[in-house]
Amino acid sequence: MKYASIDSSLFIENRNKFKQLMKPGSAAIFVSNDIMPTNADGSMGFRQSSDLFYLTGVDQEDTILFVFPDVKDGKHKEILFIKETNEHIAIWEGAKLNKAEANAVSGIEQVYWHHEFDKIVKPFLFQAEYLYLNQNEHTRQYIETETAEKRFNKQLMHKYNLHKIERSAPIMQRIRSIKSAHEIDLIQQACDITEKGFRRLLSFVKPGVWEYEIEAELIHEFTKNRSRGFAYSPIIASGFNACVLHYIENNQQCKSGEVILLDVAAEYANYASDLTRCLPVNGRFTKRQKEVYNAVLRVFRGASQLLLPGNTFEKYNKAVGELMTEELLQLGLLKTEDVKNQNPAWPAFKKYFMHGTSHFLGLDVHDVGFFYEPMQAGMVFTVEPGIYIREENLGIRLENNFLVTASSQLDLMKNIPIEADEIEALMNP
Ligand code: GLY
Ligand code: MN
Ligand code: MN
User: Fold this and answer.
1) Lowest model confidence (mean pLDDT) among 29-38, 134-143, 262-271
2) Residue 166 and residue 277 in one domain
3) Does residue 89 register a pLDDT over 80?
């Protein structure tokens, strides 16, 4: 891991939050992610299960967390199982955490080797009435690959088939959606690294530059600042490519007169940031480009002020739709009749702004949280309106990350230039 060590108090607090929402007499088990294979003897870079990381801070494979607040011996309320280290692993991969290190990272006193799991937990599970098992229940995940956690859950449900099974995911989604000061600091660090990367681009983007060269500039800056890299696949989309919402080829040459949309951001210590900016490739927006840019900026500003405790997503999305409709009318992209005759289920503005305005942000870029409950202080959201005009080869999106506070909201990316005039001035020093 490249990031600086994190105080174990974060993970101790997180476990306490989980325990408070468990039923009495219950145990919970969380499992780390697999190292995913590529081909031959290759593997992908390791990415920890966000839930296991949130509860332990342990960032390696073959890790299991066992939590049983009401355990009779009082000593094994929390047990961490980690991969056994040996000389072979130390020589080839560098040492994995030893027991003392795992204790220091997580704050868990009882640390055993992974292969001891069955023997150690069996007597404790006999005492438990309920068994909480976890899995990825993100409402937008459609992944067929079986996770290590799901595989392990199947074994547990077979071995302990008379226990009453409970789902951990609703508790995890609830507690992860409200960020602690410590987490906000880590997200802010990710945003600050993103800012460094973006500022580097202001003098780098020129006619003739290739999209992948921009990607290379960013990864250099992110890695230099202790990030593992991009928080998600970067979208570096010049001209028409900006209208392809999930464009990730990043293989075209940027031409004078085009605008380039950059949806690019760093992770730090597994926490994501999520930025979008649009730059004129030759350093100056045309009048039309600036009109569209400023329209998006006004919607961005209007929307962000609506991130308030107590507001609902139903009201928020409706208000943002109205702001966007007004801008599209002003730009001549919609006519009054289009709006008058619109289908309420797919309003007219959706022709040019077809994605959502906000999502939760945290350990995952599309983080967990309940969209059907009111916003609360401590939640972190993106705001990312856009206007995509395919017939003009122009796509503009602006995106920052906001913390909802007790009475307002805080822009975690407030130092990243966003005004069209400021962008032009920085590109033409
Ligand atoms: N970069 C992914 C998103 O904006 O949602
Ligand atoms: Mn986003
Ligand atoms: Mn984004």
Assistant:
1) 134-143
2) no
3) no
For ligand 2, the distance from its centroid to the CA atom of residue 4, given in whole angstroms, is 26
Q: Which residues contact 85 (CB under 8 A, 6 or more apart)?
A: 95, 96, 97, 98
Number of Cβ within 10 Å of residue 38's Cβ equals: 8
Assess contact for 260 and 237: CB atoms under 8 A.
yes
> CA of 285: how far to CAs of 253, 276, 281, in Å?
18, 17, 8
Distance 274 CA to ligand 2 centre (A): 5
Q: What residues flank ligand 1, with Cβ below 6 Å?
A: 232, 263, 274, 359, 365, 384, 399
Rounded mean pLDDT of 174-203? 98
Does one domain contain both 172 and 276? no
Amino acid residing at 237: A
Structure tokens given for 55: 């509860």
Question: Measured between alpha carbons, how far is 210 from 215 in angstroms, rounded to an integer?
Answer: 9
* Ligand positioned closest to the Cα atom of 276: 3
Domain termination site, one of 160, 176, 192: 176
Residue 1 is assigned to a structural domain of this protein:
no
Same domain for 423 and 364 = yes
- CATH number of the domain within which 103 lies: 3.40.350.10
Which of 158, 176, 194 marks a domain boundary?
Answer: 176
Which residues lie at CB < 5 A from ion ligand 2?
274, 382, 384
Q: Residue 218's domain spans which residues?
A: 181-427
Mean residue pLDDT across the chain = 96
Give 162's contacts (C-beta < 8 A, 6+ positions apart). Answer: none
Query: Residue 172: its pLDDT value, please?
Result: 98
Q: How many domains does one find in the chain?
A: 2
Q: Ligand 3 center to residue 265 CA distance, Å? A: 8
Place of tokens 């940031």: 273
Q: Residue 111 Cα, ligand 1 centroid: separation in angstroms?
A: 38
Q: Determine the distance separating the centroid of ligand 3 and the alpha carbon of 264, expressed in angstroms.
A: 7
Q: Band the pLDDT of 94: cuts 50, 70, 90.
A: confident
Indicate the top mutation candidate among 359, 400, 401 to test ligand 1's pocket, ranked by most ligand atoms within 8 A of CB.
359
Same domain, 18 and 147: yes
**Residue nearest to ligand 1 atom 3, measured at CA:** 274
Rounded to whole angstroms, how far apart are CA atoms 31 and 155?
A: 12
